[in-house]
Amino acid sequence: MFTKKSFLTFLYIGIIIGVLSFVFFTSEHTAKVFFLSILISMMYTLIYGAGNGLMNDYLNRIFPWNTETRKRVISGIIGTFVVNVLLTYLCTYINFILIQGQPTENLWNGKLNVSIWIFINIALMVSAVLHAKSFMEEWKKSTRKEVVEQKIIAKSANAQFESLKNQLDPHFLFNSLNVLDALIEENPHQAQKFTNDMSKIYRYVLDQKDKEKVTVQEELDFAKTYCELLKTRFEDSVNFEFDVQDSEKEKFVVPLSLQLLLENAIKHNYATPKKPLKVRIFSENNFLCIENNLQARDLVKEREGIGLSNIVQRYSIITKENVFIEKSDDYFKVKIPILTQKITHMETYKTNNENLAYERAYKRVKEIKGFYGNLISYCLVMPFLIFINLKTAPEYHWFWWPMLGWGIGVISHGLQVFGIGKNWEEKKIKELMEKDQF
Prior knowledge:
Largest sheet: 5 strands, mixed
Number of helices: 12
Order of helices and strands: HHHHHHEHEEHEEHEEHHH
Strand content: 5-15%
Strand order of the largest sheet: 2-4-5-7-6
Structural class: alpha+beta
Distance between the termini: 55 Å
Shape: elongated
Number of strands: 7
Radius of gyration: 35 Å
Helix content: 55-70%
């Protein structure tokens, strides 16, 4: 995008070129010629920079690099050539006709052809650099976005698996079914309610599988249902208290975070009628807090902290806010951030085809970088060779030979990189592979 920063950059380049032109290519070293050289150089750089920058921005909007690469390249080559020829004639007219006062017919009778040709090559070089820079910026942006999305997908999938694993834990199911079996004879009404609570829990897990955030209210409703199930199972051995401000209930948290923390509290602490486990869920300074009295019991170390690590990782991907864990001799407390911005639902699929697409995209970036390196080298070297030729042997234009030879190589490279002729190669490879199979 042509911004104020770009404008200042081209301004500084124009000043530097003007000074160099005055020192090395001007015979009359006066103040007037000095300032005139700088002004003319600034005019060239600003016109070329603005023209190519605006064209680049326009092409980026209608043909994005990451989705319309081929169209973007073809339109870029054609647009670059047409725009820079027009800009060159415009700058030449202003410089030689308006400023230096040469006759207008010099623009068409061939006397300014060498100057126009040199400026066109310089303009193409500048444009090639801008296009290469634009391509790399867009590709980096796209790559960063894809990496973040894949991290979110991976962490979310891991979190969902862990949540489902906790819910479907054999001990959890075994104990719940035992409670249900006892309730069917003792209290059929309570057994029916217990069954409904279990179905609500599994339904919530399935409903939230494609979400990265849910409202605090949704999570609290689910947690209350889960607590009722735990209360039925443990009776007076556990107590739950909810104290969340109404103003926080429309904000957002990571789904199933309360379930993981409640499950952690049950797993890591003793709970008896004489020493009940007291769990409190409340809001505090934009955090949703889960606090319980500490009655720790020994657990297998591999299972320690899995739920907490899961939540910390998920929050670290979608926000800069931290999850805080406080532990003392009397209590254990986890504070998860309450978020104010909802993120849209995320696609949670990732197949082997995407890995192959990434490898192909990586290879293609290397090919396109190689082509642009070749093109920029051509645009840099050829004006220098033309200058050397015209200075040393103006009667014999030998620069046409390397220009044509190398130019054909650049065109061939471009055709190879941007897919023209690729279909023939792919068809031939497929044909030979099928022939070998037979």
